[in-house]
Design brief:
32% strand, alpha+beta, 1 helix
Length: 96
């Protein structure tokens, strides 16, 4: 099942609120609620942005590789469904 593919880890520093970890690819994605955390995009990483009930969230890879980029979209979809109860959340490559 897809929900068993990912696990949510606590943040290890103040750069994010939590981390999505893919148990299959070891992809790490930082979850950054923009109203709570100061976020500066890293040009060497991939970012995706979402709006959830009026809250802006940035997602950023941690240690970019080809497999990270391929797994990132599915990980954000999993997070939206499992953690935010918002399976129809719009996922964007830019911040609106």
């Amino acid at each position: 099942m897809e929900n068993e593919r990912y696990v949510l880890l606590p943040a290890t520093d103040n750069s994010c609120a939590e981390i999505i970890l893919s148990k299959v690819t070891d992809t790490k994605i930082k979850v950054c609620p923009l109203q709570k955390i100061s976020f500066t995009p890293d040009p060497n990483e991939i970012q995706l942005y979402c709006e959830n009930k009026g809250e802006s969230i940035a997602f950023q890879t941690d240690g970019l590789s080809v497999k990270n980029g391929l797994d990132m979209f599915m990980a954000v979809k999993w997070y939206a469904r499992q953690q935010l109860d918002n399976p129809k959340m719009l996922i964007m490559h830019y911040r609106s």
